[in-house]
Specification:
globular, 117 residues, 4-stranded antiparallel β-sheet, two-stranded antiparallel sheet, Alpha-Beta Plaits, single chain, alpha+beta
């Protein structure tokens, strides 16, 4: 079963980070990605640009509307995701608990509506 981890963080918590801090953070995530690969559960990941770079588009009601920025103004923003393929929610939660984002923000776990592979 495929699960997507949506990684949410408060950008204010990251504002103080130096280039060295970012390099260390990338190493931590690299180790996590390596562990997912080694376990054979890794499917995909991406680190997203800051929420200020977002563009939101809607064609609801037949009229295109474009908004600079995210759909909702919230304290925590979506910063990236992981997709894994594991047997069940318990296994997904075990991997989510190991995700570095769980230590600084939140990891939302969503099962794929399309199933596994």
């Amino acid at each position: 079963m495929r699960y997507t981890f949506l990684l949410y963080t408060d950008p204010a918590d990251l504002a103080h980070m130096t280039p060295d801090d970012w390099a260390a953070e990338k190493e931590v995530y690299g180790a996590y990605i390596g562990a997912l690969h080694e376990a054979g559960v890794f499917v995909d990941t991406d680190w997203l640009q800051p929420v200020q770079t977002a563009t939101t588009l809607s064609v609801k009601g037949g009229s295109k509307q474009v908004q600079d920025g995210p759909f909702a103004d919230t304290k925590e923003t979506l910063g990236g995701y992981f997709v894994i393929d594991v047997p069940d929610l318990d296994a997904a939660m075990a991997w989510a608990e190991k995700c570095p984002a769980a230590k600084t923000g939140k990891v939302e776990i969503r099962a794929s509506a399309m199933g596994g592979e």
